[in-house]
Design brief:
This protein has about 180 residues and is mainly alpha-helical. About 70% of the residues lie in helices and about 0% in strands.
Length: about 180
C-alpha cells in the first residue's frame, strides 16, 4: 500500500482521494496489509459465491417450474430473480471483473438491471395477487411503480444518477 501514499507523507497528514460512482457513494476506506487483504477478499468472495449460487439455484428451479406451469406470475418471478442476479453481480463489481465493456455501457446496465428488477417485482406482485381481478384499487398504484421504475432506469441511462438513485430509494420503500 506504500505505493499509493505520496513519499512526502508524514504521519497525521490528510490524504485526499476523489472517488466517483454511478450511484450513491458509500465507501469506507481501509488500508490493508497484503496478506490480510487477500484473506479478507477470499472470505468475501466465498460469501458472494454462496449468495450468487443461491440466486442461480432459485433461477433454475423456478425457471423449470415456470416452463412446466406456464403461469404468468412464475414467469415474472423468474425474470425478477434474473435481473436481481444481474443487478447484484453488477453492483458488487463482478460483472465488470469478467465482462470488459466501456464504463458508460456498464453504468447504463446498472440502471437498467435495477429498473427491470423493480418492474418484474411489481408485475409478479400484481399477477400473483390477481390485483386486476381481485383488488382493483391497487392496480393503478402498481402501475405507477412500474412507470417510476421505467423513469428511474431512463434517468440513470441518461446520466442523471442522483435522480435515478432518489427514485430507486423511493421504490425501495414503496415496493415491499
Amino acid at each position: 500500500w506504500a505505493a499509493f501514499i505520496p513519499p512526502q507523507y508524514a504521519e497525521g497528514q490528510y490524504i485526499y482521494l476523489r472517488l466517483q460512482t454511478a450511484s450513491v457513494l458509500r465507501l469506507p476506506v481501509q488500508v490493508w496489509e497484503a496478506n490480510s487483504f487477500f484473506n479478507h477478499a477470499a472470505e468475501k468472495n466465498m460469501i458472494y459465491g454462496i449468495f450468487f449460487g443461491i440466486l442461480l439455484a432459485m433461477l433454475l428451479y423456478n425457471g423449470f417450474i415456470a416452463l412446466m406451469l406456464r403461469d404468468r406470475a412464475y414467469i415474472f418471478y423468474v425474470l425478477y430473480i434474473l435481473f436481481m442476479f444481474f443487478y447484484q453481480i453488477d453492483t458488487h463489481g463482478y460483472f465488470r471483473l469478467y465482462v470488459q465493456i466501456p464504463y458508460a455501457v456498464y453504468t447504463a446496465g446498472f440502471w437498467c438491471f435495477l429498473g427491470l428488477t423493480f418492474i418484474f417485482a411489481t408485475l409478479f406482485t400484481g399477477s400473483f395477487l390477481q390485483v386486476k381481478r381481485q383488488e382493483k384499487r391497487w392496480f393503478y398504484p402498481l402501475g405507477l411503480m412500474i412507470v417510476l421504475a421505467l423513469f428511474q432506469g431512463a434517468a440513470g441511462v441518461a446520466g442523471r444518477p442522483l435522480l435515478a438513485n432518489q427514485i430507486g430509494h423511493l421504490l425501495g420503500v414503496l415496493e415491499p
